Please model this.
Amino acid sequence: MIIKEPEALYTIRFNDCDPFGHLNNASYINYFMNAREDHLVQTYNLHLKDYAAKGLGWVVVQHQIAYLKPALVAEKIYIFSRVLEFSPHHIMVEMWMTDEQKKKIKSFLWSKFVHIDLKTGRKAEQDAGLMKLLSEVTVEHDAAETFEQRISTFVQSI
Model:
């Protein structure tokens, strides 16, 4: 069975925190992006460097993030990710961070990635193998739901 919501455990590092011991707002994005890359490798054996070697890659065109509870220095947290939608040119990924017990949501993120030709910087179509994988891992959701509605629905489900 294919995993649609990969997860991984991380530790909040001192150098990623503000003077109050909270994860710096900008660092949340780094944790999410690194986790997504880890999920791709560990769950789907998909390596971004292999695509880069072919002259292909993805760029972020949009992030929507909500900071719900602070992540603290030395705290263990889980980061989850899943594909909400895709087309031949883009992927929309939903990610969230929880406490170690997976009970409290600390942050929630939507990221939209566009597939590009690294030489030209223009949109490129995702290959058939990737499109097949995306069709297998995309989760069902209400496409009309706004980011704020999705957070509310999601928080209530945990």
